[in-house]
Structure formats: C-alpha cells, structure tokens
Amino acid sequence: MKIDYQEPSKDLLMRIDIHEKYGSANIDEWTNDLLKPQAGMDILDVGCGAGKLCFLFDDYTKRQAKIVGGDFSNELLEKARAKNAERGSKIDFQFLDFNEKFNFADSSFDLCTSAFAIYYASDLNFTFGEAHRVLKDGGRLFVSGPLPENKQMFYEIIKEATHAEIPPMPGSSRFKGDIFDTIDGIFAKTELHKFENHLTFPSVAPFIDYVRASLGEDRKLWTSMFNGADEYEALISKIQTVAQAWFERDGKLVMTKVVGGILATK
Ligand SMILES: C[S@@+](CC[C@H](N)C(=O)[O-])C[C@H]1O[C@@H](n2cnc3c(N)ncnc32)[C@H](O)[C@@H]1O
After folding, report:
1. pTM for the structure as a whole
2. 9-265, superfamily in CATH?
3. Candidates 120, 126, 142, 215: which one to mutate for ligand 1, based on the most atoms within 8 Å of Cβ?
C-alpha cells in the first residue's frame, strides 16, 4: 500500500506544542521510563521529523549516546540540524526513506525507535525487516502510534460537522493489528504498552489550531473532505460551530490521546 503523506514542519511542531501545553501527561517521560536509553548506546530514530526523540535521548543520556535520526523530509531534517547546532549536540541527522533499504550495516544499533512515523511504510514486513537487520542481537525496537480509541472527541466533532466518513488513518487502523503482528512475527519478544494523555482545551481556539495542524491540505490525509482553500475554510468553520456547541454544553473540550508503544527485542 502506497501512502502519499507529507508532514509540514509547522503543523507537526504546532501539534507537539499543543500536546505539551494542554496535556495531563508527558509522553517524553513515558518513553524514557520505558526505554531508559543508556550512555554508550547506538540509537537510530526512524522518521525523526524535527528530531524530538533524538533530542530527548540526547538529554537523557547526557549526550553520551551515539544517535542517528533519519527522515525523508529535507524540511524537517533542516529544522533538526539547526536545533542540533544551536544545542551543540552531535546527533547525526540524515536522509532515510523507510521504504528503501536502510543505509547501515547489519547489527549496528542497540535501539531503533520510531514515533508516529513508521506505520506509513508501504510494506511493513520489509521496513520492520530492515529495523531488525540493523539491530544488534538483544537490541530493541520501539514503535509508538495511535490506538483505535485515540482522539475520539476530535473525530466525533468532525463527523457531526460534516456528516462524512472520516478517511482511514494509517496509524490507528493498523497499529494493534498489522503492525503489532508484523513486528511480533519478526522479533523474538514483543509487548504492547499504552499511554493516555487528556488534553483539556480552555477555549475553542486552541482546539481549532489543533484541527488545522491535523487537517492541513499538504498533509494529504484528509483531502477527501475538501478541495482547495475555500472548501477547506468552509470545513474549518463548520467544525468550529460544532466545537463551540460542545464547549457551551460541557464547559470545556477534552480530547484524549491514546498511544500505543510496541517494544520488541531481537
Ligand atoms: C508525525 S511525524 C513524527 C515525527 C517525529 N518522530 C516526532 O515524533 O516528532 C511523521 C514523520 O514521518 C516521516 N516520514 C513519512 N514517510 C516517511 C518515509 N517514507 N521515510 C522516512 N520518513 C518518513 C515524516 O517526514 C515525518 O517526519
């Protein structure tokens, strides 16, 4: 399955910012508690985006791990490299398309991670096969992504506003099924962990910021719902009306992110 997908850096950074501002729990702490990356480790983050996880591990290991971040978006890699230079960190950000063979020798890494990215792969067996190949024996793979119950309120508001079908989201529909099963078939041991974050929006505006950062035209995941800028604005305005009605009824807007973490050992 070929998924035509692009992540504009402003949208990704906006969503990360909103999760941090309005969330009840911190996904970074959850990730570090689960993985406890150590000084001296070789770490590969696949679909690193602007480098969020790489910088997290760099801080946690007090810059004592060898970290490589790979992504196919040059725009996001540039952001990551700029931050790397600003921090004086030594993370190696490089081009990596996870639908192609990874440019690393067998048994190179202790830890391979991918946050909200790798499930866009066209051929899961191939991509997780590559992750397995570049890991050392006993090395770990960590993949996070949305579970089916993720962000229900967000989808319900959009459904009520549009009376249209929500387009299939590559992550949520495949995470517990195909993705878990593929990894489980390749790795020696596989576990599923769960993280919940309640985002409480104190007004409608930041929720609409989140909607815009999720439905952006160039993201190409939602294009079945609108065609061009005018239809996009009309859609946002309908969503705003429904969100406003929910807000007046409940006094707040709460959206729960439900994230799965697949942790596997080679
Ligand atoms: C939702 S973002 C997550 C970014 C980052 N892991 C984070 O947690 O902030 C998804 C990322 O997957 C990347 N991506 C999508 N398809 C890819 C591919 N075929 N190869 C490499 N990266 C890809 C996008 O460029 C984007 O950076």
Report:
1. 0.87
2. Vaccinia Virus protein VP39 (3.40.50.150)
3. 120
